[in-house]
Amino acid sequence: MTSQTVLVTGGSGFVAGHVILQLLDAGFTVRTTVRSLAREDAVRRVLGDAGMTRGDRLTFVAADLLDDAGWGAAVAGVDTVVHVASPVVPGHVDDERRVIEPAVDGTVRVLRAARDAGVRRVVLTSAFHAVSWGHPHDGRVFTDDDWSDLDGPGVDAYAKSKTLAERAAWDLVASDGGSMELTTMLPVAVMGPVMGDDISGSNGIVRGMLAGAMPRLPDMYLPIVDVRDVAAAHVAAITVPAAAGQRFLLSNGPVVALGEIGAILRSNLGGDAARVPTRTIPDVVVRLAAVFSPRFRALVPDLGHRKQTSNQKARRILGWEPRPAEEAILAAAESMVSRQLVGR
Questions:
Q1: Does the residue 149 lie in any domain?
Q2: Which pTM does this prediction carry?
Q3: Catalytic one among 160, 162, 307, 313?
């Protein structure tokens, strides 16, 4: 048991929910933000269904990333802030500002409140989108030292939001952060057991396959990490002294082809995977469709490209041991099937 209180922002979210579960299991007292306290009962039910222990050590406070109100109360008496909340809108959007501004302004707002409250450390959930977007396909292995090139090809609003928000966080801590420490987490495509009825992030790829919404698969590859391992890395970053001032790329290692994800589903789920596609879309067809479709246009820069990653820093400093990608894929699929979420 620890006397530390941790604030987790965005408690209704996928990653935040798993972070909360592991913090409670580790003996922390947890406070979490939601935009409205009317959400508290629903979030508690979701966490309870996911196996929450010691829910009596979890409290809620209302706070919105775009409003100063509530953040003073949220950070009062807190030792560490785990800032997870941010819009997750990959691909094409008509107005990039609605993705970028909440991410950047919200991050600065949370860090300023934490600094003013004397918080010891902020663990910020950034993303692989802040590392690898906009670079040439030169076979490099991406590490925690890399930053996305926002002027390069294939950079969407989400990549801009995560890159600009993380840079704003490092700039604030360097120029006006006082004694507050910052650690940032850079997960690749996050998959794993869903919570409640919401399917977030890369889990949507698994649902799309199971639902038959993807009749053919483009020649694309994903570095994958299990949400439970992402949460474990966040918990470790709270307590490991050497994590201060570090970025951590969270990946299980090898990239996985979309076709391989489909094969994993078909070989393990039987009839529940009957609609999973078996054929691929030729690159030339994707490129032709991209002329007319922003959705296909977003795929073109990464066709056939394998983004290799190194997780050695997280292993070395945090003692982090991620599970194989297959476990994350199947945990996501099985949780969707059991909750009857595939057809929704």
A1: yes
A2: 0.94
A3: 162
